[in-house]
Every structure is written in C-alpha cells, then in structure tokens.
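Technical note accompanying the year-one report. For the benefit of new consortium partners, we illustrate the data format agreed upon in the data management plan: each record pairs a sequence with a structure-token string. No post-processing was applied to the example shown here.
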Amino acid sequence: MQKLINLFAILFLIAGCQNQNNDLTEEFDKLEQQRDSISQVHSKFKNTHDEMLQKFQDFNQNLESMEIQDSTVFDDIAKHSTLLEQHDAIIKSHDEIIERHKEMEASFEEKSDTEKRAQIDEMISTHNQLMEEHQAMEEEHRMMEKEHESIMTKLDSTNTANQ
C-alpha cells in the first residue's frame, strides 16, 4: 500500500512539473508572438526615423540658405540633433534585444523551469521597455515636426517682412 501511495505521489509530482513546463512553454510562445509584433512595429519605426533624419537634413539645408536673426532656432536644432542621435542609439539597442530574444528560442526547451521563468520574466521586462521607448521616440518625433513647422513659419514671416 505504501508503495502505491509513493507511486501516486511521484506521478502527481511529475504531472505537476509537466503542467508547469507546459504553462511556461505556452507563456513563452505568447511572448514570441508579442516579440514578432514588436519587431514589426520596430521595423516600421526605423523607417519613420530614417525619414525624420532626412527631413532634419533637408530642414538644415533650408536654414543654411536663410538669414537667421533668432538664435533660439539654433538651440532647437541642436536639441533635435541630440534627440535623433539618442534615437539612433536606442534603435540599435532594440535591434540587439530583438535578436537576443530570437536566439533564446533555440535553447528554451533545454532549460530548467527556473531558467525558463527567469528568461520569460526578462522578456516581459524588455518588451515593456521596448514599447515605452518606442512611444517616447514617436512623441519626440511629433514634437520635432511641430517645432520644424513652427520655425519655418517664423522664418518665412521674418524673411517676408524683411523684403
């Protein structure tokens, strides 16, 4: 009878471990889908960022042909340049994170449940970081575009008044 109880206890423990492993695998699969979605958003944002860089370069070329009386324009340009450089660094770090997460997939099943949990927790944390940073960069892009428009409107009205 004791052997039968021990056998049931072992089977119950094995079944519990198997359920935990299945739960971790299912959670990881959902995170992979989320990573793929984040990767698509990231790719689109990289294109948007490249377009913003081009607009910024065009904007600077337009400014070179104008006589600028307001020195705050140069402060705004310097701020925008710094933001775009920061965005470049963030985008590169996102590329690395996304690639690292792809590489995690290959060895996931070989890990212990504790290692799987740690990997899942890290992925959740970095996915949240990626989404927050993307949102912040998008807001900064919108702010820069508005400021570019405002500067050009101000400069156009100044040039028109001087003529």
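Partners are asked to follow this layout when depositing records. The two ends are 105 Å apart (CA to CA).
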